[in-house]
Amino acid sequence: MNSELDLTYLEEVTGGSSEMIVEMLKLFLNDTPDQLSSIERNVKNKDWEGIRAEAHKLKPTFQYVGLSKSHLEIAEVESKARNKEDLESILQLVHSVQNDFNLIQSEIKSKIKELSS
């Protein structure tokens, strides 16, 4: 499992600005749970377009912080929703991403604290 935080991309796009990296990490921590819940809600409602749209918005955020496994899983969610296939596997993918997100949160919070000091 690739659940190691890798801020290389964020460092590149922010020019190494700790302040901007901290802001983006805070947004990631704050917004991701709601976006994943929204996908779950859309799965329950069989709202394929809602699933696809939310996954599409969420996908790059995992890339920004170097969480490639979660990025690939959300990309798969987006693809399955676009093709209207297998709601159950979409839910499994979302739960896997949620689990990985929960595991990485403390590392992200530590990084925010480190960059803020």
Describe what you observe in this structure.
- With 117 residues, the protein is mostly helical.
- It has one domain: Four Helix Bundle (Hemerythrin (Met), subunit A), CATH 1.20.120.
- 81% of the residues lie in helices and 0% in strands.
- The chain has helices at residues 8-13, 18-44, 48-64, 68-82, 87-116.
- The mean pLDDT is 94.
Structural class: mainly alpha
| Count of folded domains | 1
Main beta sheet strand tally, sense and closure: none
CATH architecture: Up-down Bundle
| Count of beta strands | 0
Summed over residues and divided by their number, the pLDDT gives a mean of: 94
Element order: H for helix, E for strand: HHHHH
Shape: elongated
What is the CATH C level class, in words? Mainly Alpha
Through-space gap between termini:
30 Å
Which residues form runs of ≥5 with pLDDT under 50? none
How are the SSEs ordered, and which strands pair?
Elements: H1 8-13, H2 18-44, H3 48-64, H4 68-82, H5 87-116
Helix pairs in contact: 2-3, 2-5, 3-4, 4-5
Key attributes of the depicted protein:
single chain; 0% strand; Four Helix Bundle (Hemerythrin (Met), subunit A); 81% helix; mainly alpha
